[in-house]
């Protein structure tokens, strides 16, 4: 049974997370402060951590840094009400597997947890797609050895495609998966803009993309 550490100071949210995770057969440890989280991490190993950023005695970023400094670090996901892009970028640059905004949808959270655990089990921190190298631990993307500078939304969009390689994703599916960063700002028109910007950065020829293909009438697909 996979062990998940939940760092959350809101009692009601913590209890609901505990119930949700146990329902899906995870073993859960709850703590509500930065100090307790760091102490527990030094004494016990976990398969994944869910970290609230706003803690009464500090912040979740410090917990994420502590995890990265462990001899055997586990993947971690930030779960927070802070939805500004700077906070998202900070979380991803610290090595967070994901950044989920409250209120979250339970089954989406479970899906993202499963994705993070699968990636960690394979020891897969760098994903190679053609001339792209995506390091999920560092939150960096390189093309032909040169680092690309993606916005938080562009990086999230790329990860969605990476986690669904070879599958056709409709525009609605893409919008639902990145709604929690940009809220109501993500609509059909802005989705077109995000995909265009991402292609301009990762494709050799954005006008004739070889990675993110348009499947007419259905959506988009990342070629494996």
Question: What does the model show?
Answer:
It comes from Enterococcus larvae. A five-stranded parallel sheet has the order 2-1-3-6-7, sandwiched between helices. By secondary structure, the chain is of the alpha/beta class. The protein contains eight helices and 14 strands. The protein has helices spanning 11-23, 34-43, 60-68, 85-93, 106-121, 152-162, 171-182, 188-202; strands spanning 3-7, 27-31, 48-51, 54-55, 58-59, 76-80, 98-101, 126-129, 132-135, 140-143, 146-148, 168-169, 212-215, 219-222. α2 packs parallel to α3. It is globular and about 50 Å long. The model is unreliable at 180-184 (pLDDT under 50). The chain folds into two domains: 3-121, Response regulator (Rossmann fold); 126-222, Winged helix-like DNA-binding domain superfamily/Winged helix DNA-binding domain (Arc Repressor Mutant, subunit A), CATH 1.10.10.10.
Can you count the helices?
Answer: 8
* Bulk shape: globular
Number of strand segments = 14
CATH architecture of the largest domain: 3-Layer(aba) Sandwich
As a whole number of angstroms, the C-alpha radius of gyration is 18 Å
Largest sheet: 5 strands, parallel
Record keyword descriptors for this entry.
single chain; 224 residues; alpha/beta; Rossmann fold; Arc Repressor Mutant, subunit A; 2 domains; five-stranded parallel β-sheet; four-stranded antiparallel β-sheet; 8 helices; 23% strand; globular; transcription; phosphoprotein; WH-like_DNA-bd_sf
């Amino acid at each position: 049974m996979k062990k998940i550490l939940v760092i959350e100071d809101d009692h009601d949210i913590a209890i609901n997370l505990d119930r949700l995770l146990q329902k899906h057969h995870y073993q859960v440890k709850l703590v509500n402060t930065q100090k307790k989280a760091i102490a527990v991490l030094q004494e016990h190993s976990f398969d994944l951590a869910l970290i609230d950023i706003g803690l009464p005695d500090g912040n979740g970023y410090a917990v994420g840094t502590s995890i990265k400094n462990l001899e055997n670090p586990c993947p971690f996901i930030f779960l927070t009400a802070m939805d500004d892009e700077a906070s998202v970028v900070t979380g991803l640059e610290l090595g967070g597997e994901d950044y989920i905004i409250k209120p979250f949808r339970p089954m989406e959270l479970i899906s993202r947890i499963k994705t993070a655990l699968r990636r960690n089990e394979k020891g897969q921190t760098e994903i190679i797609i053609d001339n792209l190298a995506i390091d999920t631990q560092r939150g960096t993307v390189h093309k032909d050895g040169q680092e690309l500078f993606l916005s938080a939304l562009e990086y999230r969009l790329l990860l969605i495609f990476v986690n669904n390689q070879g599958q056709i994703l409709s525009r609605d599916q893409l919008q639902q998966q990145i709604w929690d960063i940009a809220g109501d700002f993500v609509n059909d028109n802005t989705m077109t803009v995000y995909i265009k910007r991402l292609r301009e950065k990762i494709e050799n020829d954005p006008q004739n993309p070889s990675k993110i293909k348009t499947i007419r009438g259905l959506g988009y697909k990342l070629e494996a």
